[in-house]
Amino acid sequence: MVSMSSTTGPSGPALIQVEDLTRTFTVRRRIGRVRRTFEEVRAVDGISFDIDRGEMVGYIGPNGAGKSTTIKMLTGILVPSSGRLSVAGVDPSRSRMELTRRIGVVFGQRTTLWWDLPLRDSFDVLRRIYRTDPARHRANLVEFTELLELGDLLDTPVRQLSLGQRMRGDIAAALLHDPEILYLDEPTIGLDVVSKGRLRSFLRRINQERDVTLLLTTHDLQDIEQLCSRVMVIDHGALVYDGSLAGLHDQGTSVRTLIVDLVDEAGPIEVAGATVRKVEGPRQWLSFPADASAAPIVAAVAAAYDVADLSLQEPAIEDVIHTLYTQSR
Amino acid sequence: MVDRALWGMRAYGVLAWMWIRVSMTYRASFVMLTLGQFLITGLDFLAISVMFATVDALGGFSLAEVAFLYGGAGLCLGLADLILGNIERLGQKIRLGTFDAMMIRPVPLFAQMASDAFALRRLGRITQATVVLVWSLVVLDVDWTLGRALTVPYLVVFGTAIFVSFFTLGAAFQFWTTDGSEAANAFTYGGNTLAQYPLTIYPTEVVKALTFIVPIAFVNWYPSLYILGRPDPLGLPAATRFASPVAALALGALAAWAWRSGVRRYRSTGS
Questions:
Q1: Mean model confidence pLDDT for chain A
Q2: Burial category of B263 from C-beta neighbours within 10 Å (exposed 0-12, middle 13-18, buried 19 and up)
Q3: pLDDT in tens, A139-167
Q4: Torsion angles phi and psi, residue B75, rounded to 5
Q5: A62 Cβ contact list (under 8 Å, min separation 6)
Q6: Which residues have CB under 8 Å from B12's CB, separation 6+?
Q7: CB B77 within 8 A of CB B125
């Protein structure tokens, strides 16, 4: 595991402290007609990290890697098997109810709002059950309505909202009680490009203006690129990377690709410092290390071949993460 | 603990009121459903009255007495069903993952589950049972002493508490198997069907089972024996007739324990 973030924040203990956190599940497997074996699966296997107030952290990993299990422990839904856990100064599994007022949770795929109720009424019910100060609730509602463009939707029942509209409603709902931490599980899943952009700028804004700490799980790496200064990668229950996005690229595994369109079809191009990865008619893909300059390679190719067109592809974070996953196995 | 219970009740009120408003947005459908439930349960009692056209007594009880038993059981079940009938959807909520969403709200889980989809249309059953009960009170040939008169509301309160406990037990069971709601219905709706009739029509073993194993007999049978001045076919001590609070309390404690264990289990298995 590679760590690039400091473990203690600049001002006192971190907002979220996770130490050697483990969660095992017993999986029952049938063998034969009656006999069964019990197998212990470590969904989260001894992970440790700190998150300081005001951070925006991306939490990524393949399906079943342990992302949701971690979030469930951080919110107090699941009790850890072992390890220490402190969120906003309390133990989530012991003080789940107390913690609910200080955190907001958005489950991307399912709404926590009431299906048949207009947004405005859902928000009002939330105000009552969170016992939010009415003036504070009103001020937040005015602000979120404007920033998330909910004005025309407030009187629409949730079931009639589009996915993007519903997601905006859910995010407003999760923030109305002024939580210190916002957990977002796949917040941009299924949204179009415009909605994604709008959502990301809203999240950036509440992070900057309200100092809300964000932890988001996602499959969309653009979420990470545009929002998070820090990435944690989990695989098979273990953290395989925790650090900056730039650092993830510097793992020594990332490559850039030069796409060359030749005038005529030819055998694989031979130039120093780059290797041909794929040939498709007159088009060829050449990889070279991300920290090397493209200029000498372009010059060498242009000198030796008749080139119709050239383009350069930056390293894809998917590839980097894929390499990390493979290494950790 | 007390704070938590009070807060749970207040939050229950907020959530139940929200569901009432939801159902009022579909006013026509609300009226139809309520009326429907009133009529369906009404037919049920009509069948019993028709039976009395050919017989004078059922298990030694007159029509008015049967109506009293029927109305008492129906009213208790109806009230319990209104208060927390949808708690039986717990298994479904666990499967869909919506139960997790309840765990991030600052309201006790029991209050959230009990108030979920609170349905005022259940007043249909309550109204029907009340009509039958009130009619029986008018026509019953009973010497209404103060003790007997007070036993009627007492029967309703503890009978409802017993059904509430059964609903809770049935729901708690679903923490172990999410398909448990049918088994739970056998105790609640099934128990109600048994308790609508004088228990004298059943074999003694059934009456014993309904007293000592699944204490449905404490909902209306034993208090009614006192009100109607009837002997106990099992010959149990007279105190049994006043033991409904004990049964309700024991069953309530069991249900509370099962619910808490269920939540604890859910939080350590996540399924």
A1: 87
A2: middle
A3: 999 999 999 999 999 999 899 999 889 99
A4: -65, -45
A5: A235, A325
A6: B111, B114, B115
A7: yes
Residues 6 or more apart in contact with residue B249 via CB below 8 angstroms = none
Minimal Cα–Cα distance from A175 to chain B, Å? 13
Tokens 């929200």: give the residue. Answer: B18
B15 has a chain A CB within 8 A of its CB: yes
Contacts of A75 in chain B (CB under 8 A): 103-104
Query: What share of chain B has pLDDT > 70, as a percent?
Result: 99
Map out the domains of chain A with their CATH numbers: 8-250 (3.40.50.300), 254-328 (3.30.70)
Strands (E), chain A: 2-3, 16-30, 36-51, 56-60, 82-87, 103-107, 181-185, 213-217, 230-235, 238-243, 255-262, 275-280, 283-289, 307-313
Mean pLDDT by 10 residues, chain B (271 residues): 92 94 84 89 89 92 96 96 93 90 95 93 93 96 94 96 95 86 81 92 94 94 96 93 96 97 89 62
Q: Is B270 on the interface with A (CB under 8 A)?
A: yes
Interface confidence (ipTM) of the complex: 0.87
Q: What angle do CA B81, B82, B86 make, to 5 degrees?
A: 65
> Chain A contacts of B107, Cβ < 8 Å?
129
Name residue A183's beta-bridge partners.
A105, A215
For residues B173 and B179, give the distance between their C-alpha atoms in angstroms, rounded to a whole number. Answer: 9
pLDDT of residue A252: 52
Tokens 């709601």, located at residue = B181
Residues of A with CB below 8 A from B11's CB? 128-129
Largest CA distance in chain A: 74
φ/ψ of residue A307, rounded to 5: -100, 130
Confidence of residue A11 (pLDDT cuts 50, 70, 90): low
- Pick among A77, A85, A182, A186 to test the B interface (most B CBs inside 10 A): A77
Sheet holding A36-51, edge to edge: A36-51, A16-30, A82-87
Greater pLDDT, A254 or A50: A50
